[in-house]
Amino acid sequence: DHPEWLLKSAGLLFGAATIGVTILMARRAYGPTLPQTSWVAPLLVAASTPFAFWTVAGLENPLFAFLLVLAALLQLEELADARRWPGWSALVLVMLALTRPEGVAFAAAFLVHRCIVRPPADAARRTAIWMTVFIACTGLFALWRYWYFAAWLPNTFQAKVVDRHLTNLAAYATAVADPGRQYLAGFISHVPVLLALAAIGLTDPRRW
């Protein structure tokens, strides 16, 4: 009678799982840390207003966050140990792309990361496997969606973009009153400290 309870409970579950995976990812990325600093990363995630709000909103956002952090953890594990199959992070990124269509963009970022991080000896073969898994799975799903719905993207995407087109992306980016540009500016103005910390981290190639 109350499906929203199930949705909100699932959101809380995925939100908690995201924080848990964040702890594991921080340990994998930076190694053993002092007890007083090991909770910095999960606390930053838990204290994020958008994360807390959307976790209990009953939508797909907490699942999306969980899959994204899990994919990052798996990728770090795969790059650190050449014995691991390199396709697990790709499969999770496939699920990310199925959860929200813009998840495909994260796969590009993950691919760049795999190319710049010091890879194992057979990096080319492992990267090829990774790309094959992602492209094959997302491609097959896109073909099925087009066959069934006669559309490459879900109707939620169509409803949000209305009459906007990727071919006009440059015009949108340069228009001061564009809602997408205003959203991005608002996001930057709300999290300058986190963005500064991320930029500082990128200055050290060992942390890439």
Jot down its keywords.
208 residues, mainly alpha, 0% strand, globular
Description:
With 208 residues, the chain is mainly alpha-helical. Helix content is 73%, strand content 0%. It is built from eleven helices and no strands. The relative contact order is 0.07.
List the helices and strands and how they pair.
Layout: H1 3-30, H2 40-46, H3 49-55, H4 61-80, H5 88-99, H6 103-116, H7 123-149, H8 155-161, H9 169-174, H10 179-190, H11 192-202
End-to-end distance: 48 Å
Determine the mean pLDDT.
87
Shape estimate: globular
Strand segment count: 0
**What class, by secondary structure content?**
mainly alpha
What is the percent of helical residues? over 70%
Strand portion, in percent? Answer: under 5%
What summary fits the major beta sheet?
A: none
What's the Cα radius of gyration? 19 Å
Secondary-structure element pattern, one letter each: HHHHHHHHHHH
Please mark out the parts with pLDDT under 50 across 5 or more consecutive residues, or reply none.
none
Compute the number of helices.
11
Q: Would you summarize the structure shown here?
A:
The protein is an all-alpha fold and 208 residues long.
